[in-house]
Amino acid sequence: MNATDEAYWTTLHIASKIGTLLLERSANLNLRDQNNQTSLYLVCKEGFGDCVLVLIENGGDITLENAEKKTPLNLCKKGVKSFYFTTNFNRRINSC
C-alpha cells in the first residue's frame, strides 16, 4: 500500500488522480450498488467529511434512500454530520 512507483506516487496519489478525473469527466455520482447505495453512502459511513462535501458539491444526492430507506446522512458518523452542517451553514452565511 505504501509502495511508490518511479515518480514516487503511492496508491493514494493514484486514487486521488482517478477521483479527480472522474469528477472532471462528470461521472454519475448517484449510481447505486446492490444495496441501493451510492458512493456518498460509503464516505459518510467511513467518516470522510471532506469527501462527503466534494461528492455533494459535484452532484451527489443526499436525499436518495437505500434499500433500508436511509439516506447517506442517516448513516453518517456524528462528527461528519456536524462537519457537513457547520461547513454548509458557514458557507451560506459568508455568501450573504
UniProtKB/TrEMBL annotation:
PROSITE patterns in alphabetical order: ANK_REPEAT
Entry superkingdom: Eukaryota
ANK repeats: 35-67
Alphabetic keyword roster: ANK repeat, Proteasome, Repeat
Pfam families per record: Ank_2
CC terms in the record's Gene Ontology section: nucleus; proteasome complex
Protein's UniProt name: 26S proteasome non-ATPase regulatory subunit 10
Source organism: Gigaspora margarita
